[in-house]
Description:
Distance between the termini: 36 Å
Order of helices and strands: HHHEHHEEEEHEHEHEEEHEHEHHHHHH
Number of domains: 2
Structural class: alpha+beta
Radius of gyration: 32 Å
Largest sheet: 12 strands, mixed
Strand content: 5-15%
Shape: elongated
Oligomer: single chain
Helix content: 55-70%
Amino acid sequence: MAKQLRNIRENLLLALDTLRTHKFRSFLTVLGVLIGTTTVIGVASIITGLNNRLVDTMEQYGSRSIYIFKFEPGIRFNLTREERMRKPLQYQDAVAIRQYCPDVEEVAVDMFYNGPAPGAKYKGQEMLDAGIQGATAEDFSINGATFVDGRPYTELEDTHRLNVAVIGSDITKRFFQGEDPIGKDIIVGGNTFRIIGALGKRLSFLGDNSDDRTVYIPYWTFRKIYPDAKENLIVAMATPNRMNEAMDEITAVMRRMRKVKPDQENNFGMATADSVIKQFNQITGMVALVMVVLSSIGLLVGGIGVMNIMLVSVTERTREIGVRKAIGARRQDIVWQFLLEAMTLTGAGGVMGIILGYVLNFSIRTLFPSVPSSVPLWSVFLGFLVSISIGLFFGMWPAMKASRLDPIVALHHE
Length: 414
């Protein structure tokens, strides 16, 4: 065992000496391995960062939340005729869910402004990208909103269509630096609202969170101001550990309310935090697969380069091989000598790729703070393991060729 370890150590030192002797040639040889490893780590870091950010963002809005839409959620390019003709969700749908779904704890209805951002004004200051949203009083508790000042509006204020508002954190920062916003009047879309609550900052998936630039007003106040608005979003919160049961109950109620026949598909869609995360993971999985294929090309090119340079090395060192065999080196010693050299070569390329991957990750986080990026340890181990395996696979033929040389012929080689 000690002899084997000593042989491995000697072969490794010979391999490192070869790398030092031919630095530039070695670098060019492993350039493909370096690029492939860097690509794997770079893509893995971005995808891991995005997945973690999405999970944190969705959990912020509640793991028990169920979002009910007019359409099935997801990326869509073409709508069918039936989808184009679908009627919007109704406020009465939410009332029915509240009444007939025992596993639903709360239900909220949201309505959005369809035109360009109405903007907000306060004492001569203006915020052009401020939006407005109508929501029932339950919306804040279902979506996990945090109040840093004031309170949410009540169901009574909603029913009486009062002009009260809850503002996002960016609006507080823009208009009320060092000033208490509660009780102040803000103008949104030409309408004046009395501020009764201010929300804390929301975690965003990418870039700024639009909720932080939103003025929330009571649902029926919104309907009074914007009578032409039609599209509703219904948000329900399932009772703990009853998510599947709640979704089944909501499906049954919605099919009845929207008059869906037993043999017809649902004419509405539902999403939960888990379903959004799974759908995003499918997309990132496809992106990762494409990038792995592309990085494999770089690894293949690097492997071919390693095989070529090792074959050249065998030719250059034929006399050395003959001498080693003449003094007692076995075939397996010659094989391990050249295999370790090839694996050291590609392993060095893998290490450089890992370092470059960390540099790339740091650059992304510095230059694009909104893009989450985190290098997972598995990508580092995988990158190094693959780089070593490339050397083992593509170094096998040159190593076998070297071990089969006749020592007498090799000694006479010039």
